[in-house]
Amino acid sequence: MSNTDRQRNILRFTLQFMPGLGVFTRYDRSWLRSDLGAGLSVAAIALPVGIAYADLAGVPAVIGMYSAIFPLLAYALFGSSRQLMTGPDAATCIIVAASLGPLAGGDAERYLALMVALTLMTGLLFVIAGFTRLGFIANFLSQPILTGYLNGIALIIIAGQLQKLFGYPGKAGEFFPKLTEFIGQLDQSHLPTLVLGLGLLTLLIILRRIAPRLPAALVVVIAGIAAVTTLGLDQEGVAVLGNVPAGLPSLHIATFEPTVFRTLLRDAAGIALVSFTSGVLTAKSFARRNRYEIDANQELIAFGTCNIAAGLAQGFPVTGADSRTAVNNAMGGKTQLVGVVAAGSMLLILFFLTEPLGYVPTAALAAVIMVSAVGLFDFKELRNLYAVSYRELLLSVGTTLGVLILGVLPGVLLAVALSLFWLLKVVSRPQDGVLGRVPGIKGFHNLADFPEGTTIPGLLLYRFDANLVFFNADYFRDRVRAAIAAAKTPVEWVVVDASSINVIDITALQKVDELREELAARGIVLATARAKRNLWKFFNHDWGIKRRDLHAKYHFDTIKSAVRAFNNRTGKEASPVPDVQMT
Question: What is the dihedral of CA 56, 61, 63, 68, to 10 degrees?
């Protein structure tokens, strides 16, 4: 291979895993103005949100700034979305706090060290998942269950900010005790904090309504700083951030005992699942609006590099941020350069303007967090579920209640368990039907859809609309028995339309063999039609050939040929073309 070919291969490989680099190499200067404006607007939102979410995650404000800045630079290179902005996320932060609190045992330094390890583990899991092509996990949590989970997170976040917004003493850690505490401690609210907090919350809500393109969170934070410095509210007991160190973070990675790493790995997997599912939904949504496609596997790698960048910067786990992505899209951002501009703007503030940040009142951050949490609560999806499916509405509400009652981390497991339950319920009891001829329509059709259809006396045509595997094989057998019992005339042949079966396993084969023997004892033939030839790819080749030949007489390429063989059963039957058998 020549040096030129080698260089081309390296370039091709680099561009494959760094889509943003390819965008920058062919950047159109006409996009620059839009990208600069969008980048500054994103920075105006991302900075106060990062500081606020640092409080949510239980770490100093500067950690939130690190987590808002450096992942943007990583995603600009590795991300496939031209609009997605990455950074701190409310749900991720609350999971981090719930995960690390018990492990840290009140030790702030240990908490920070655990957080860095958790962030790096999350990033590595993302990268591994990306290279092993696990992008399909974005569809693992159904939308109703993900909605229910995020709604529960939103309610927990709101309850957790009441104490900071009202300024009363509180110690409760769970959702319902926090609500009880709020009612009981409301008369002990710190009046200056209460007035400032409610005033800033009102201002934030008004600005978001009348001026949606304005960086309302930044305006509220600046208003809070102005109120504190002008009125001396910090001297009146209003809590503020305090000193925010300037400059870049120092690299530090701690070591822990193996049991702690196992716990962190479990929690990192939960964070990766939830954050990728919600983040890639945001990326897909805005890609669809702008008429292009994203690569889910590349997004896994991009999210991984973002979290590794955050971890190396001593930050917490991050994901796709819907609010900042919406700002980018509204401001007309064209490429990943928006993230670079936003990160650069925040870096300048980190170097030169951290002193004013020390006067940010925590009540202002509580207001920002509460409004963000309300945005996280998906009322629209609940209304849609109410209109469309009561069953899936109950699954969504049940997930929310599970998160509120059991807690954030058990809520992740509950969401996964409910998704598995829903999946197994659907595939273990699939649609099926008895087929017949319908006047005026070619072929054979489900008689449940066409009651006027007719069957051939003595022949039962049956279709099973799912893969045939261990958890639905008994159901298949029972449904065939029920169809035979319900037939108007005695059944002599049962022909299974196997066109919907793409996978079959050894357990299902054994169950079908038992059914064949049972039916044979009653003088009934079990045959199949339209079975796919790739059904045997899951078995040893030689065994599959022997199995196929064993019952070749009763395997047909089409339903029509099976019907013809049935009609000719009392005479000399023509040998049907051997078809790959289902059993």
Answer: 80
Structure token pair of residue 45: 């939102």
Hey, how many other C-beta atoms are within 10 angstroms of the C-beta on 257? Answer: 7
Identify the bridge partners of residue 556 per DSSP, sorted by sequence position: 529
Beta-sheet strand order (sheet of 459-464): 441-446, 432-438, 459-464, 493-497, 525-529, 555-556
Place of tokens 């049940």: 398
DSSP code for 468: B
Cα–Cα nearest to 415, from 431, 403, 429: 403
- For 38-57, what is each residue's pLDDT tens digit? 899 899 888 888 988 998 89
Give the chain's domains with CATH numbers.
Answer: 29-423 (no CATH), 430-567 (3.30.750.24)
If phi > 0 it is left, if psi is from -120 to 50 it is alpha, else beta; for residue 334 that is: alpha
Strand-pair category, 555-556 with 525-529: parallel
| 353 within 8 A of 225, measured Cβ to Cβ | no
Q: Which two tokens stand for residue 304?
A: 């991984």
Instruction: Give Cα 200 distance to the centre of its chain.
Output: 33
Give 371-424 pLDDT, tens digit per residue: 888 887 888 889 999 999 888 898 889 889 988 998 877 877 787 788 788 878
Tell me the one-letter amino acid at 409: L
Q: Using CA atoms, how far apart are residues 217 and 158, in angstroms rounded to an integer?
A: 17
